[in-house]
Amino acid sequence: MADITAPPSETQLKSLLRALDDLDLPALTALLRPLSAIQVVDVLERLDVHERAVLYRILPKDRALEVFEILPPSLQGDLVGALQDDAVAALFADMDPDDRVELLDELPATVAGRLMHGLPPDERELTAVVLGYPQRSIGRRMSPEFVSVRPTMTTAEALTRVSAGLDDAETVYMLPVVDDERVLIGVVSLRRLLTAVPGTTIVEVMRPPHWARATEDAETAARRCADLRVLALPIVDNETRLVGILTVDDALQILETAESEDQARIAGTEPLRRPYLTAPVVSLVRSRVVWLLVLAIGATLTVQVLEVFEATLSEVVTLALFVPLLIGTGGNTGNQAATTVTRALALGDVGPRDLGRVLLRELRVGLSLGLLLGGLAFAVTSLVYDRSIGTVIGLTLVSLCTMAATVGGAMPLIARAIRVDPAVFSNPFISTFVDATGLLIYFTIARAVLGI
User: What is the stated purpose of this protein (predicted)?
Assistant: First the structure.
């Protein structure tokens, strides 16, 4: 049985590209027919805007909508610009409100306004509800289409309501329970409804709810949904009135996007927000050049430190040989600590309130690493050069690893406390900081030990 999640084979891709070049539409239709929606998306991500539009137009209507909903919002925006207005309007109207809002964020205001104006009144109202929340809040990503039940209903009455709302609801596997004021008071699973004794009321089978406020950060709410292992998380307003739900698939998508952003910023780039092969070269340059300029300016601190200790280097030239080793080790130690703590922050394992505990923990880790690496460096360097140089390198590694691990562990927590993305404070800035301070430590120890 074919794996519908596996990328198309090289032979399939070459055949598709050849048919596209020749504009052989019957051949394209035949080649696309055996591919799953996920595989079609994989093909579309490898094409330019024009080719993508040609390929997309020949998909059957049902398959086209399925593919469109899987596409990243950036590519959805590209397709909207390439397709005819009537085709776009039909696609836009068939989308779920939360997916529709994500697409609107990618479009120019004039295009977004035109699409909103073309929606049926009920769909426009649902979309406007989601659009009314802050940009990165979970209210912006929730679905306002759900089925709720009342505590006084019997399980049979609840199942009747579920059946009536199947076509519109985002999910019916988890049902919020609300009172007459729409205040969330519980949740009940579809499984409990189906297995309950006839005549049982909802209040007898419901359980206490977990929920998130609509104004909460989207990543925080998505993490809660994933940690609780629930199929859907109710979203409420400030009065705990139900306004929407976050399904587990949307939560995982939010977490995947956040993870991609963190990884990009840790590496010193800005996230592309679109598949790599579809990103223009200009976008790739723009995502990297700012960080390179910032880091280049930061690196001038290292140059200035070397200038200050130029006389020391001229007296003991051997010291210069170890500069790359020491600053590299310090930077790597700091980056390891920062990456570990940033990940712990994302998972909710630590928070700014744990700064003291993290500092103490990383200080001990850094000191242990420094003693191990410093002891090894002392032994090897003493054999190759002399004991005094070995002492300088050994003591520097002990001090440098301790300092780098402590600073690397603290910076993400400080960033979270001042409401800055912790990933931004991770590898790039820590490397620059550790380079300069590491050299200060190195040459200060060298002067003291060698008496120069």
Answer: Acts as a magnesium transporter.
